[in-house]
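JOB MANIFEST
job_type = single_chain_structure
chain_count = 1
residues = 160
[input]
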Amino acid sequence: MLFLCTVIMSPSPPSSPLPVKPVNSAAELEHQSPSSVTIGTWTRPKTNSGKRPSKKELSDSMGIDESAYGFLMSLATNALSEQIQEKQHLVDTNRWSNVHGDQKVEVYEAFSQKVANTSQTRPDFNQIKECLKDEGIVNYFTQEGWVLARKRWKNKNSGV
């Protein structure tokens, strides 16, 4: 059963920022479940004439640089390649929206695990960590990673 609550908050003075508990280690990031990801405000940038946004436009809209964007995309693709190898039926699913919710949670967790295990060595770890607090960004990387991993798996196994 779902309960809705309305919280009335008094505005806080501008001099007192809200307390934020930073994630200091890969272990803390690893234990951050997909349910603890905040619903963010990030949406994919719009472009004219139906073109896909460039990596620069996407990374700028996420608040990270292009190298961090490429790093996260490669982690998502690798995590999803492993998921596809374990669960072959993911290859036969034509659209990300048709992937069952439980399987999406597994994919999110695999991606989070990859990020936790490898991103702490980067100098922009804090930027990446902040970026991935937004549910829209996490969903973007897992969806695009799934598309690329599925394409990679099909090319690898088609005998071409």
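[summary]
The CA atoms of residues 119 and 125 lie 6 Å apart.
The helical segments are 26-30, 55-62, 66-86, 89-92, 101-118, 125-131, 135-157.
exit_status = 0
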